[in-house]
Each structure stands twice: as structure tokens, then as C-alpha cells.
Amino acid sequence: MAVLVGRRTLMQALRLQTADRDIACRLAAASSCSRQYVFSVKFSPSSRLNGHGVVTRHYSSDSKDDLRVRYLDGEDTGIVVVGINRPKAKNAISKNLVKMMFEAVEDIKKNNKVRSVILCSLVPGIFCAGADLKERAKMHQSEVGPFVSKARALITELGNLPTPTIAAIDGAALGGGLEMALACDVRIASNTAKMGLVETKLAIIPGAGGTQRLSRVIGVSLAKELIFAARVIDGTEACRLGLVSHSVEQNQSGDAAYLRALELAREINPQGPIAVRMAKLAINQGIEVDLSTGLAIEEACYAQVIPTKDRLEGLAAFKEKRRPHFKGE
Fold first, then answer.
1. Is 129 marked active-site?
2. CA gap 127, 213 in Å, rounded
3. What are phi and psi of 45, to 5 degrees?
4. Catalytic residue (one of 179, 207, 257, 286)
5. Given this model, what pLDDT does residue 68 score?
6. d(CA 199, CA 201)
């Protein structure tokens, strides 16, 4: 009976994810008729890590450069770096950024070759300052609600990505910026990064999942304290509270958290991709239910990996004492 409940819950979760994707597509389509985000990111020879994957910060006032997406190659194939790039606005969340992030997330979802996603900033000293209040001030009151709904839907979609997501917080992550990071599976921060849900300073509350996700990450009492007081903490304190998994000392180029996130993505990369996706689904669905139902969900997810070619490859590699070559099949 428990297995049936678990499988039913799993199927419901998969149907909900499909429905959410449809909603996101409609929202993205309503925002724009064409896709303009950039897939090319320049690399700096002086800042390479093992020759791969270090994103050089590149500044532009052109709105099409607000988000820069890089699908890494070579040994890092499968890692996607999503870099926010609005230096003049401190990476604040604008209508255009929401549109571009929707498009990027949808393309990542459709790509079965993606193994992990790193969300980072291309602007030194800032991750994301939250909502673009200058743009918000120009909105009619009737526009604010729909925009917040779109931003909330975007962050939900980010959280629903089937592959592991890592937020690399190398600077300030405030309000909606921290809410984006909270939607990721893992958060890594530099020790000098600043984080907080500061909405009560503006006589509003976190509106893109912050009240729910922060409570689940650090506990209800601490979440209430930080939100009520609009408190800002650094990376070291965030790690102590469990808000981030790792706090690393910032380097001269200001990308220490990104480099640590890249190391983690490289640890995930060689693992069985279907297994990793099923593990994420089992964890995400299981923490929302009682233990008995959670165990049934785990069993249902386990059943999904049994018939895969990757499982047979893993067994063969173990027997032959070699590294497995998983294809996501």
C-alpha cells in the first residue's frame, strides 16, 4: 500500500512539474516573442581553473547581456553556468532579467545532457540586490502584482529544475536575490558575502518563496528572527546557521564561491545523471511528507533507475575495475 501511495505521489509530482513548465512557457511567451540571451562567455587564461570553466566578467549596458549563459565543454561538458550581468543595477531583478531567466531555465530543462547548473554573478561584489526598485517605482500599482507573480513563478521553476543547482554567492544576495539562491539545491558563499531577506525595511514581506524556503533551510525560529529584523549576515555566519553549505575565503578576483561551486559541479558530473535526478526528486518530495510516504517515494524513484543502461554500465565498470561512462540512458 505504501508503495502505491509513493508511486501515486511521484506521478502527481511529475504531473505538477509538467504543469509548472507549461505555465512558465506561457509567462515567458507573454513577456517576449524572441529569445535573445547569450550563450558565449569569454574566458581569461589568467584565471582558468585546470584549463576549464572560469567565467571572465564582461560588462555591457545592452539589455541582451543582462544574463549570460555558458554550456561548458571538454571535461566539463554537462555543466551550465548562468551568470547575472547587470553591473549598473547591482544585478537587480528586472522584467527583462525575469524574461531571460525563464528562457534559460526552459532550455536547460529540455537538454538531457545537462548534469548541473551554477547560478552566479558576473559583477564583482554583488550576487543580486533583489527587485529593481527603480523600475518598480515606475510601474503602475496594477503592474506590481503580476510582476511579482512572474518573479515567483521563475524562482519556482528554478527550484523545479531536475538537475542539481548550485548558487555561487560571491557578493550581496538580498531580498529576491537570496530567494533565488534559496531555490537552488546547494549554496556556496564567500566569507565576505552579505545575505538577508530585508523586505520588512520596505514595509513588505518576502514574496518569492523566502518565508517558506528559509524556514525549511534554517528552521522556523531563526527564519522568523532574520526576516522580522531584516538582518543581513555574512558568509561565515550563514554557514554557521546552515543557510549555505560552504563559506570560502574570498580571493583577489572576487570569485572564490564560483570556483568552489565549479569544483562541486565537477564532483557531480561523473555520477549517473538519471540517478542524480531521481535522488533530487526523492529528497524534494520526501521532505514534504511523513517518513512512511517518503520511503515509498524513494522506492518509486529507485524503480525508475533499475531498467536504465547506466545501472548496467555501473555494474560492469565495478566488475572491470574501471571508470563508468554514463550516458543518461
1. no
2. 18
3. -55, -30
4. 179
5. 93
6. 5
Place of cell 550563514: 238
Catalytic residue among 28, 89, 129, 131: 131
Strand bridging mode 246-248 / 116-121: unpaired
Among 78, 176, 210, 254, the one annotated catalytic? 176
Contact status, residue 264 vs residue 242, Cβ threshold 8 Å:
no
- Active site (annotated) includes residue 299: no
Among the listed residues 203, 198, 98, 109, the one whose alpha carbon sits nearest the alpha carbon of residue 152: 98
In tens, the pLDDT along 80-122 reads 999 999 998 999 998 889 999 999 999 999 999 999 999 999 9
Q: Known catalytic residue: 230? A: no
Please, what's the b/e burial string for 263-282 (b: 16 or more CB within 10 A of its CB; e: otherwise)? Answer: ebbbebbebbbbbbbbbbbb
Can 199 be counted among the known catalytic residues?
yes
Task: Calculate the dihedral angle through the C-alpha atoms of 255, 260, 264, 265, rounding to the nearest 10 degrees.
Answer: 20
Sheet containing strand 246-248, strands side by side: 67-71, 79-84, 116-121, 165-169, 186-190, 246-248
Residue 307: Cβ within 10 Å count? 8
Task: Return the SS3 of 49.
Answer: strand
- Among candidate residues 175, 199, 294, 296, the one labeled active-site is 199
Sequence-distant (6+) residues with CB within 8 A of 186 are 164, 165, 166, 167, 245, 261, 264
Residue 17 has pLDDT above 90, yes or no: no
Instruction: Please tell me the distance from the alpha carbon of residue 172 to that of residue 194, in angstroms, as a whole number.
Output: 4
Mean pLDDT of 136-152: 79
**Strand 79-84 to strand 126-128: parallel, antiparallel, or no bridges (unpaired)?**
unpaired
Global confidence as pTM = 0.80
252-292 tens-digit pLDDT: 999 999 999 999 999 999 999 999 999 999 999 999 999 99
Neighbours of 216 (CB within 10 A): 13
